[in-house]
Amino acid sequence: MPKHVTTEVRSATSLRLGLCCLFAEQPIKFRNTTVKANSSMNRAAALDKLSELCLANAEALRASLRFCADNGIGSFRINSQILPLKSHSECGYEIGDLPQGGEIVKQFKACGEFAKTHDVRTCFHPDQFVVLNSPRPDVVDRSVKELEYQAEVAVWVGADVVNIHGGGGYGDKPDALARLAKNLNLLSARARALLTLENDDTTYTPSDLLPICRDEGIPLVYDVHHHRCNPDELSIEEATREAIATWDREPLFHLSSPLAGWQGKKPRPHHDFIDVRDVPQCWRGLALTVEVEAKAQEEQPHHSAALKRELAIKKLSRRAKEALVQSSRRRKMGD
């Protein structure tokens, strides 16, 4: 089982900050295609095109990891469509079916070596259609295929997390969670070893998922924004402690801020930036990976002085200083 290992003991102000999938400002683009476009070609031409896209995405991943390494960012979430249409029922393929399959694997493994050398952790977060506890067998089957594909690439690049939500409640959460536990047995040992569960903002709280995480040996990815939107009897401090106890490697958590603020009517949508006040005090001093779920995520380390101070991002821009002044003013007004 791949594990992210570091010999460093992280200081109180050096949480591992992570970026997610796509860039808003950097000229780094991942390529994709559609079922319609792929289906319009004969199979040989379609496989040629898919091979081209996979190689281009390996190059984009290398550029993403280089950006992270150059900017002191310690983690990167890899796009679920890094191998376009890989698990699709009609257009899907095995890597050996592609004309340059061997070279594709080689390039992704090179990305893994780069990430390891530069201490950049990698992970996956499959799309919302992955629902292991669905009562529909066809949905479960597609979910398993998608998880197996992402686990395959995870091994190439040395990623140690393939993270999913608990799924639907279907009017009976205990029954739905029992179905989830049962369907874990459909996964290969490789995929199951990488799997993690995350609390969501509408259905499953940390206290809902912690029993299955403990019983099945599945780490809990604690999303503090989701917990604030969908609370249970656990405090943030308690949920943090209980989530960490489920991990056999460096824990990975999620952080975001509400678009309209906590006083807004809809706190679930994410803001482009992180408000430093949303970073839990109890996370300071812990060896954690914290994925920043914000659209301007690659700007965040440069432009939020307060977050830099807390998460040990070293460079400080003029805009960051202005953000710090504004943050201080808000605190004073709040007092």
Helix vs. strand class? alpha/beta
Low-confidence stretches: 1-13, 296-329, 331-335
Query: What percent of residues adopt helix (DSSP H or I)?
Result: 40-55%
* Order of H and E elements: EHHEHEHEHHEHEHHEEHHH
Alpha carbon gap, first and last residue: 50 Å
Summary of the model, kept short:
The chain has 335 residues and is of the alpha/beta class.
Describe this entry's structure for a reader.
This protein has 335 residues and is α/β, with parallel strands linked by helices. The chain has a single domain (16-295), classed as Divalent-metal-dependent TIM barrel enzymes (TIM Barrel). 42% of the residues lie in helices and 9% in strands. It has 12 helices and 8 strands. Strands 3-2-1-8-7 form a 5-stranded parallel sheet, with helices on one face. Helix 3 (101-117) links the parallel strand 2 and strand 3. Helix 2 runs parallel beside helix 3 (101-117) and helix 3 (101-117) crosses helix 4 (137-157). The model is unreliable at 1-13, 296-329 and 331-335 (pLDDT under 50).
Descriptive terms for the model:
335 residues; alpha/beta; TIM Barrel; 5-stranded parallel sheet; 3-stranded parallel sheet; 12 helices; 8 strands; 42% helix; globular
